[in-house]
Amino acid sequence: MGCITLLTQLGSVLLEDVSRRAPASSHSPHEPPPHSRSARRMKSPHSLRLSLLLLLPHIHLGQSDFAPYFYDNGPSTTSGNMALFSIAEDTPVGAQVYVLNGTDPEGDSVRYGLTFEKGSKEYFRVEPKSGRVTLIAELDREVEDEIDVLVSITDGRNKVVEKGRVFVTDANDEKPEFLNLPFIVSVPEDTEAGSSIFKVQAVDKDLGSGGSVTYFLQTTPNTKFTIDGHSGVLRIKPGEYLNYETSKTHFVTVVAKDGGGKYNGKHQVMTSSATITINVLDAQDSPPTFVGTPYFGYVYEVSVPGSEIFTVFAKDGDQGNPNPIQYSIVNGSDGSFSINSSSGCITLTTYPIQLKNELYELQVKASEVGPENQLLDYTITMVTIRVVDLNNHPPTFYGENGPQNKFELTMYEHPPEGEILRGLKITVNDSDQGANAKFRLRLVGPGRVLRVVPQTVLNEAQVTIIVENSTAIDYEKYTFLSFKLLAVEIDTPERFSATADIIIHLLDTNDNTPKFSTDFYIARIPENSPGGSNVVSVTATDPDSGLWGDVKYSIYGSGADLFLIHPTSGIIYTQPWAALDAEVKSKYNFYVKAEDTEGKYSLAEVFVTVLDLNDHPPEFDENFLEKTMIIGAPVKVEAVDDDAEEPNNVIEYSIMKADPENVFDINTSTGEIKLKPFIKSMEIVQNITRQKDCKWSVVVQARDRGSPSFTTTAVVKIDITEANPLSGPMAAFLMQSRDNPLKALGMVAGVISVMVMVTVLISTAMYMRNTKSNKIAPARRIIRRRRREQPQWNFKTPFGQPDSPDKVVADDVESNTANRNKNNNSSWPKPPPPTAPVLPPPPLANPRVTERQRSAVPTISGSLTSRSCSRTSSQKSLTSKDTEDRPSQRKEGNVSSALVSELKKKLEQKIIEANQGYYYY
What we know:
This protein has 9 helices and 64 strands. A 5-stranded antiparallel sheet has the order 32-31-34-38-36, with no helix packed on it. Strands 33-40-39-35-37 form a 5-stranded mixed sheet, with no helix packed on it. Strand 27 and strand 28 (345-348) form a beta hairpin.
């Protein structure tokens, strides 16, 4: 009892102490602030009593221990106990979003914890020591906008758990979503412009401006629709109308756009689109329309009840399926006029004298009549009726015998343009006077074929019809032409009119040329067809009538000799005597002519192909053939098939019989016969035949591939021999000529003849060479400036007697090379007496000549060499070489030396005289 009293007193003291310390401890980092709801809750008397009871053991032990607590810094901070904490839904996962912050009154270290209620998704994780709270799952306000968390703080002995509520704030992360997709709407085509035809609706789950939705259309240049940006109501544009006949379906793309908002720190506007399919429904949307408005009618003083005043005419605007029209007078008649409900004819119901007004304006209504005789859409027009003095003479057409409303004429087709149709005698007259007698003429019918003159008439005129388009007046198109001649008053209110029918009957002319059905015809006929066989049928037509339309056929051309044509049917057939042979000629072409009775014609070309038949058997050159076969080499037999085309002329070879058997093979395509592979030597051959001549026989069959197939056979006698050991072209030639000895003999004779001719030519040349004696070849030394390569002048003066054994050679000293006399290799006639060499032509230009060149004088040097001279120089070598070819020549003598010296002097003198006055190079 004393312990309880003591504890009660101790609790009171503690309460007073806490009450006294609480205001002062708001500045201590280890005590809760006075405005903290957690502190007030923890320090309330009831809570303190509960804490005292819990602390009794400690107090009993002589110790005091207070529980840790959170700082409550309010909802606008990011540290504390997460009470009323707000976080944006676009916060990235892994971001630090809050710091749990608290303390222990005794200053002990605290640890933090964060949990969720069972079954709830975990969005946060806390670091126990630092209290840092991290987002671990994506937030979505539209899915969960409030998150309940349980935060705890403990000092190791006492643990305080508090429940907090985290609010997820909105971010603009949701697109507008259309409801009730797909959008399909059916609209009657007669829906008025500006009418609403559909309403789209889209919702955005975001809040604020991000959740507001506006609409607009992705417009096209010819769109007929518009949409209200706020309500989403789709309307037909003002001034636009739907037309089922033009477009049965329209596709409109509508876009829903939100008001925009922050997302990940940036302003973002999100849109969605959908397609609206608008099906246009056909409707009777076109009211009747009056034809020929405005309408004017007149009542004359002579009119009587029942007189027709005017006839109105209306037609349904929906021409695809028009409804009948019913006429009625709505207003303005005063009981004086009535209208026929079917024809629209307005009639007078009283006498003109009883009419009270001079002008009546009748409102005439034309209504469509539905399938059940119900009145549908209608149109009202105004008919003006004037009561005037008598104007009772409309225009009237007259013929030769009085008034006439039908005129007929017969004429030939294609009259000249500008021609007057004089067969039409038409007069038009209006008996009224002044403006009442003025009217206009108009010709109604096939456009721009005829024209009428005059076009405006006063009182009376002669009507003239003129041809305007001659081509259109064609008998083959129309046998008659029908026109209406109208006369309509111009300036009268009544606009009286008259009508006359003009019928022109056309006569045919021969204005068309026969025309073939095609420009060329292709035909095929088997060879050996009997005479008179049909080849092809040609067809030509002439649209003219009567005899002009009759066509006669004929045939001509270089390839038409074997063919005939029926003059009326156009059937082409072969001559009775014709024999077609593809091997002789397989292609024919000629022309056919289609001609009418007046000689107008056209041509077509006919191509005839003669089809080859298998009518020729294969043929060998001879029925008995002899061949020589070298072991290892084939022999060839060949047959010819005179057919023109494959497969009739394709030949296959086969062995029908062989002696001995089974020793030969044959190539079925080429006809090459060869021994079996096992026969490789003459020993094997002799072992097979047991005969020395080794001549075997084989029967070869040649068969073509035609249908039916033909065959022929030949006996081939084959002499078997071994290969000639000789090699080379001659050996090959001899082996090939074994079957034809005359060919080899002729070849040998030819070779011998050529050799004899060559020997004769060589002997003749040698004889003529030996008949030529001494020859002097003058050499000229010229000192010149070498600008370019010039041909050298070699002066050769052959001379001497035929029996002279000596030869004089003139060498070119400047060239320093042996000038070999080549005259010995040619057969010259007897040399003429010695003459001076001919000078070259002067140069084309006169280049400057140096002093050295002016002092240079051409000279000729000659030397006599004989066969006995020693070969010490190039000149002696050349001369010795030439003289060795003539061992029969004698040594040179004194006479020859003197002759050479004299010739040398004469040549030098001639050259000096010729060169006086110019130099040459």
